[in-house]
Amino acid sequence: MRDKLMQARWQRRDAGDEVLTPFRDVTQYNNFYEFGPQKGDPACHAGNWQPQPWSLWVDGEVARPGRLPLDELLAPYRLQERIYRLRCVEGWSMVIPWLGFPLRDLLERVQPSSHARYVRFESVVDAENMPGVRSGFSLLEWPYREGLHLDEAAHPLTFMAVGLYGRSLPGQNGAPLRLVVPWKYGFKSIKSIVRISFLRERPLTTWESMAPQEYGFYANVNPHVDHPRWSQARERRLPGRLFAPNVIDTRLFNGYEEVAGLYSNMDLRVNY
Ligand SMILES: Nc1nc2c(c(=O)[nH]1)N[C@H]1C(S)=C(S)[C@@H](COP(=O)(O)O)O[C@H]1N2
Ligand SMILES: [Mo]
């Protein structure tokens, strides 16, 4: 893992017009409800959480199901750096330099069967180290679950991250392995993944099962489709200062227009 991170560091690309969100903000302003509901809770409770050993289970409609220990999972890949915007459904955003590999490389390896149409992801449940899991007050059910259509999972932008800013993922950002889907609201980018299942039917996801009118399965970033309780037309790009919030226009698909073809036959207001 260490060697892979060193190698990847040589490939750092510039972020175009975007300014990278400082490491400090990326790692101290987080949503990871297993570690608590406040933005500072994950840094506080997961800062030293490096769960090991880690394995990823692959099951369902797939030719090569089974358990992949993290080292084995990463062995064939040369890590890439991807600088992506991350837009949270709450109305803030960041620009983060991730390290990892495209999810499609894993799909090719495990070979979903012809029956597979959806992919479901599950996060780890580690009650001992996760105060949000122990709390009786959380609105969410564990494990945290997310899902994608197989075509979305196979899109070249869909990424599995194992690091950020040239180092391995901090606990609060989803160590040791998390999904990053840059054209969707941040809640789709599930952290600390232990299981990937290939399914015939669309899976029910954590946020959709909690409030289906507010958090749809697709969750594509869209300035024209408001959340029932707030507008999605604009966003606060972090870091901002209290009296100078850095507010910018939100873009369709978070600016990643190359994914539009995935939804050409879909009414984005109905399939939000
Ligand atoms: N397991 C799990 N994954 C999760 C979450 C969570 O609470 N639990 N929060 C999501 C939300 S709402 C966002 S905005 C992003 C935040 O990622 P970051 O903290 O690395 O910026 O993680 C997503 N992945
Ligand atoms: Mo979010």
UniProtKB/TrEMBL annotation:
Q: Per the annotation, how and in what number is the cofactor bound?
A: Binds 1 Mo-molybdopterin (Mo-MPT) cofactor per subunit.
What is the E.C. number? 1.8.5.-
Q: What cofactor(s) does the depicted protein rely on? A: Mo-molybdopterin
Provide the catalytic activity annotation.
Answer: L-methionyl-[protein] + a quinone + H2O = L-methionyl-(S)-S-oxide-[protein] + a quinol; L-methionyl-[protein] + a quinone + H2O = L-methionyl-(R)-S-oxide-[protein] + a quinol
At the top of the EC hierarchy, this enzyme's class is: oxidoreductase
Which keywords describe this protein according to UniProt?
A: Metal-binding, Molybdenum, Oxidoreductase, Signal
UniProt: Mo-molybdopterin binding residues: N30, Y33, E34, C88, S123, N173, R178, S189, I190, K191
Q: Which domain of life is it from?
A: Bacteria
Q: Which residues form the Oxidoreductase molybdopterin-binding domain?
A: 50-207
Q: Which SUPFAM superfamilies does the UniProt record give?
A: Oxidoreductase molybdopterin-binding domain
Q: Does the keyword Transmembrane apply?
A: no
Q: How does it assemble?
A: Heterodimer of a catalytic subunit (MsrP) and a heme-binding subunit (MsrQ).
What is the documented function of this protein? Part of the MsrPQ system that repairs oxidized periplasmic proteins containing methionine sulfoxide residues (Met-O), using respiratory chain electrons. Thus protects these proteins from oxidative-stress damage caused by reactive species of oxygen and chlorine generated by the host defense mechanisms. MsrPQ is essential for the maintenance of envelope integrity under bleach stress, rescuing a wide series of structurally unrelated periplasmic proteins from methionine oxidation.
Family statement:
Belongs to the MsrP family.
The record, for NCBIfam families, names: PRK05363.1
Record protein name field: Protein-methionine-sulfoxide reductase catalytic subunit MsrP
- What organism, scientifically named, is this protein from? Pseudomonas fluvialis
Its lineage opens with: Bacteria, Pseudomonadati, Pseudomonadota, Gammaproteobacteria, Pseudomonadales
